[in-house]
Design brief:
With 157 residues, the chain is mainly α. The chain has one domain (3-147). 67% of the residues lie in helices and 6% in strands. The protein is built from five helices and four strands, in the order H-E-H-E-H-H-E-H-E. The chain has a two-stranded antiparallel sheet. The protein has a two-stranded antiparallel ribbon with strand order 2-3. The longest helix is centred in the N-terminal third of the chain and has 35 residues, at 3-37. The two termini are 38 Å apart. The relative contact order is 0.15. It binds calcium ion (3 copies). One calcium ion is lined by residues 139, 141, 143, 145-147, 149-150.
Length: 157
């Protein structure tokens, strides 16, 4: 192979990688979504399954059972899961700390997004709204279920 062709091949490889990477990330996100929400294990997340799962999740986060997720409850529940995940990770202590800080910052941002009316608490309606937006994003073929049959949207992540 002469040098020009080799350069061209490398450039083409870089381009196709650039196109493939977001799709891969999106399909990874879809598959994680299915793994987390597919309660009966048939590989597809129905609307009913998703609704049941989200209600359970809400109840699990609402530690004081007042029907609203406070910032402390939301971040606290996330921190507990994050701590478990980091404990199982083989990364260096330094990397884990970096990841912990980054993830907690993201959880803080997510709380702000979920709390659409900025009341300082997430209501069931707010939680449901964000859930359905996520469901609709993944259900790209609009058949009312999220499965591997849904082509991944390039901009979903
Ligand atoms: Ca299912
Ligand atoms: Ca609460
Ligand atoms: Ca679908």
């Amino acid at each position: 192979m002469n040098r020009k062709i080799a350069l061209l091949a490398a450039a083409l490889a870089a381009i196709s990688l650039g196109v493939a990477a977001p799709a891969f990330a999106a399909s990874h996100a879809r598959d994680t979504f299915i793994k987390e929400q597919d309660l009966n294990g048939d590989g597809s997340v129905s609307k009913e399954e998703f609704k049941t799962g989200r209600e359970k999740q809400f109840a699990g986060i609402d530690a004081n059972h007042d029907g609203v997720l406070s910032h402390a409850e939301y971040v606290g529940e996330f921190t507990a899961r994050l701590t478990k995940r980091l404990a199982a990770s083989t990364d260096t202590a330094e990397k884990k700390e970096e990841e912990r800080v980054r993830q907690l910052r993201q959880a803080d941002v997510r709380f702000g997004v979920l709390d659409t009316d900025k009341s300082g608490g997430i209501t069931p309606a707010e939680f449901e709204y964000s859930g359905w937006r996520m469901f609709v994003t993944h259900d790209t073929n609009k058949d009312g279920a999220v499965s591997a049959a849904d082509p991944v949207a390039e901009d979903a992540n």
